[in-house]
Amino acid sequence: MVPPLQTLLDLEFSPRNAAVRTARDATSVVVPALSQERRDDVRLLVSEIVTNSVQHGELGSQRWIRLRVESGDGKVRVEVRNPAAVAFEHLARSNEIRESGWGLYLLENLADRWGISNEAGETCVWFEVDQER
User: Fold this and answer.
1) Does 1 reside within a domain?
2) Number of folded domains in the chain?
3) Residue 22, domain member (yes or no)
4) How many other C-beta atoms can be found within 10 angstroms of the C-beta atom of residue 56?
5) According to the 3-state scheme, what is the secondary structure of the chain?
6) What is the pLDDT of residues 89-129, one digit of tens each?
7) pTM for this entry
8) 47 and 24 in contact (C-beta within 8 Å)?
């Protein structure tokens, strides 16, 4: 039987720019047994997803962004949720020159697995990184 994932972090933030740094810093403290390179990947991906939620979500002052980090079975799973339909741009191509819109490209290239779901009025972007790569 596979052991359940252990929750390391479960936080809600107001949808403000400061949430990006707070989420990134909080994640770096709790991510277990990852190489420095993989911790940096997780921090970057958290920054990208939370930034997208802050910038593109229709989140008023009474709304929230939820960050959940779990670990177990040789992987770290991160979920970023918010109560709005957040639009994600198409995957950027590596040869494109652009200032923004790289979030999904980075997920595709840095995460071992990732996805987006829209259920019960929430958008959830999640990714997993294996502890050993």
Assistant:
1) no
2) 1
3) yes
4) 17
5) CCCCCEEEEEEEECCCCHHHHHHHHHHHHHCCCCCHHHHHHHHHHHHHHHHHHHHHCCCCCCCCEEEEEEEECCEEEEEEEECCCCCCCCCCCCCCCCCCCCHHHHHHHHCCEEEEEEECCEEEEEEEEECCC
6) 545 455 655 555 677 888 999 999 999 888 877 888 999 99
7) 0.83
8) yes
